[in-house]
Amino acid sequence: MAPTPAKATATVSSSEPPKIHASHIGSIKAFAEANGVGPIPSSYHSITEPRDDVAHDLAASIPVIDFSLLTSHHDPRRRAFAVRQLGKACADWGFFMITNHGISETLMEQVINKSHEFHNLPIEEKKEFADNKGPFTPIRHGTSFHPQSEKVHYWRDYLKVLTHPQFNFPHKPYGFKEVAYEYCEKIREIARNLIEAISESLGLEAKSLVEYTGFDRGLTLMAVNLYPACPEPELALGMPPHSDHGLLTVLIQNGIGGLQVMQGGRWVNVDPLPNCLVVNTGDQLEAVSNGRYRSVVHRAVLNNRDTRISVAVANGPELEKEIGPAPELVEKEEEALFKCTTYSHYFQIQQQSRLSHKSALDQIRINPQN
Ligand SMILES: O=C(O)CCC(=O)C(=O)O
Ligand SMILES: [Fe+2]
């Protein structure tokens, strides 16, 4: 939808800032540039309680996995150690950083720089990608999360691209497509190795989860997020607390913090190690592991100085496959905690609902009390 000037649609009351629907704003980047340090619209007030519950003491305990150990098949003892460490990270946090992953610093920088260039294109040039035809549209540009179903909006613009099993990508800015292709291929390979190791950590064959989820034909969604500096960061969020839909999401950012993960009911700031990849477990991993590896709830907070960019590559199962808890895990006496559903169905639910904690996963729980 073409953005209309914000002023024309604002409802102004004397006591509170205007309430403006995100679909009228069209791009929060453009809005923030025009709005300057003025109060933000009340429709972006998503924080209702003071932001005082950050567990600073836990930040240094975020697990770090040396990826080179996971691929050191010539040294089974060291690899087995890394597999156990990875299983523990999935069980205790659902979140970890990986070092020695083999992706060059240059490629990571190019991805971030081109992402910034994309968002810096004039609004007119991004119109062709406007997100108004549903979640299976290969290339979507929009703002907030899903303005049509939200009560409050989020201070974020996004580009979402389906990069696997078919590779799609915008043809601009120049060179972005090539960089994104190389990056997404490498991320898929890393995610595949992680899923093999995760499979082993659950006591299954290495190939078991890759085969069961049809990972080699799986869906990959690259989300290129831009969070402009926000004059009232204590009132708004870039993304609400949520879990991701796929198996594993791999994230990089432009050196500006903002990601928080939930651990033991408290928020933990993520301050990634230099050049590492940040990984979080998604809902499909919770379902296939029958609840052993829970998807992690996370959110993006804002600041009033810098534009933040993050690139999250979500790696999921094959779209048309019926998936639920892995059969080897539930064939003994263990009770299945999740219904089987196609990932296609699940992805649709998650992308079109109001994003909130684990609301999509809750829809496929067999016993919602769990
Ligand atoms: O920007 C971030 O750090 C979080 C992004 C995110 O959660 C997502 O794209 O699903
Ligand atoms: Fe996320």
UniProtKB/TrEMBL annotation:
<dbReference type="Pfam" id="PF14226">
    <property type="entry name" value="DIOX_N"/>
</dbReference>
<comment type="function">
    <text>Involved in the regulation of shoot development and salicylic acid (SA) homeostasis.</text>
</comment>
<dbReference type="GO" id="GO:0046872">
    <property type="term" value="F:metal ion binding"/>
</dbReference>
<dbReference type="InterPro" id="IPR050295">
    <property type="entry name" value="Plant_2OG-oxidoreductases"/>
</dbReference>
<dbReference type="InterPro" id="IPR027443">
    <property type="entry name" value="IPNS-like_sf"/>
</dbReference>
<dbReference type="InterPro" id="IPR005123">
    <property type="entry name" value="Oxoglu/Fe-dep_dioxygenase_dom"/>
</dbReference>
<feature type="domain" description="Fe2OG dioxygenase">
    <location>
        <begin position="214"/>
        <end position="317"/>
    </location>
</feature>
<dbReference type="InterPro" id="IPR026992">
    <property type="entry name" value="DIOX_N"/>
</dbReference>
<dbReference type="Pfam" id="PF03171">
    <property type="entry name" value="2OG-FeII_Oxy"/>
</dbReference>
<comment type="similarity">
    <text>Belongs to the iron/ascorbate-dependent oxidoreductase family.</text>
</comment>
<dbReference type="GO" id="GO:0051213">
    <property type="term" value="F:dioxygenase activity"/>
</dbReference>
<keyword id="KW-0847">Vitamin C</keyword>
<keyword id="KW-0539">Nucleus</keyword>
<dbReference type="GO" id="GO:0005634">
    <property type="term" value="C:nucleus"/>
</dbReference>
<keyword id="KW-0560">Oxidoreductase</keyword>
<keyword id="KW-0479">Metal-binding</keyword>
<keyword id="KW-0963">Cytoplasm</keyword>
<keyword id="KW-0223">Dioxygenase</keyword>
<dbReference type="InterPro" id="IPR044861">
    <property type="entry name" value="IPNS-like_FE2OG_OXY"/>
</dbReference>
<feature type="region of interest" description="Disordered">
    <location>
        <begin position="1"/>
        <end position="20"/>
    </location>
</feature>
<dbReference type="GO" id="GO:0005737">
    <property type="term" value="C:cytoplasm"/>
</dbReference>
<keyword id="KW-0408">Iron</keyword>
<dbReference type="GO" id="GO:0031418">
    <property type="term" value="F:L-ascorbic acid binding"/>
</dbReference>
<protein>
    <submittedName>
        <fullName>Flavanone 3-dioxygenase 2-like</fullName>
    </submittedName>
</protein>
